[in-house]
Amino acid sequence: MRDIVLAIIVFGLLPYILARPSWGVYLSAWLGYMNAHRLCYGFMLSFPVVMVVALTTLVGMIVSKEKKQMIWSREIIVLLIMLAWMGVTTTQAFFFDLALEQYTKVIKIQILTFITLMLLTSREKVHIFVWIIALSLGFYGIKGGIFTIVHGGSYRVQGPLGTFIGGNNELALALVMTIPLMRYLHLQETRKWVKTGLVGAMFLTAIAAVGSQSRGALVALLITGGIFWLKSRGKILSGLLLAAAVAATAAIMPQEWYDRMHSIKNYQEDASALGRINAWWTAFYVAKDRVTGGGFEMFRWPVFKQYAPEPGRVHDVHSIYFEMLGEHGFIGLFLFLTLLGFTWLKCGSIIRRAKRDKELYWARDLAAMIQVSMVAYMTGGAFLGLAYFDYIYHLIAITAITWHLIAKPQPQAQRLGIERWFVPRAWLASPLPASQPSAAGLRG
Fold first, then answer.
1. What is the pLDDT of residues 66-77, one digit of tens each?
2. pLDDT at 431 over 60
3. Which pLDDT does position 67 carry in this prediction?
4. Which of 109, 118, 235, 316 is the most buried (most CB within 10 A)?
């Protein structure tokens, strides 16, 4: 039954995507984050549904008259350079066939990122896109939060198998990154029942992240929680939400969870932690020896045998930083950190620009919450190998688009037919103001 329903939704929307390729961006995001096809049991489970939607979107971009634009910014240029460097490291990889396969996957992810960058041409479309991400991952947050409460935290919350968020650690990081986006939507919303629903979703998503029993997620939650409070408008509500999440965690989670979280202090006795550290040193020694690093999929026994302090302790790297360092060398790590740093600074420029204009508060809220999501990614990612997770690259694209939108006057919104569900009515009543940022602001 699930297969039939999903097939009707996907194939029923393909004609609309040809006319409005931005719908393809929304559908791709839904499939990419919620992974609805991975929840099926029949023919849709193995059907290349994302590829079909992506190809239809590309055709729609060619034949449709819907507005398209390519935004060039320092973040996007660094991203392109990083992708090119990954191509170089692939040619020098320890395991070329495996590296080429992974590089192909990364390129496919980035093609969808650039399609998103070209088709989200208005604040309404950006807002809808954020809603799609929040609803898709919020599905697992709400379901996982209820599951954790009902079972008293005795079982781990997991994501759909065979996806970026399949493991408990990966899902937890994605959920922590999504809570700030929910807060952005809450700040923009005017309908009380939707605002109430978003508050409940944030609470349950936080509980689900705790219920994943991921130690990295706990670290990310603690750090992100403080930044979330500092960056958010309405600090009383934010503070109450954080306090409620902490109180609920204390009341719900069993002693076994506390014992597991306490083991962070005793990492010297944890085989998993020691394995990660051994992999981190391996990444460092490979990067020190080879300017191109070891290439994609390098963390395997032959490499550990040659470079690891403990050759017999083979372990996945589980860190976005050491993943980039080992697979693409110091140059790859530098480009990755530069990309994140430029995006953070661009969010800061958006916040400063939007403070001067009440009509741009939406951009200020979005940029601030993207920064909070980045904090979650950069802290939680220190213990997870999600350097190629499409989520962070979508946030980078949204940042570049938002700056472009507020730096230039925008025309009246083109109605998409679904805006009445997602977009605040006040947004559709008037275009963005025509005021221009200062030259100093543009340099940000």
1. 888 889 999 999
2. no
3. 87
4. 118
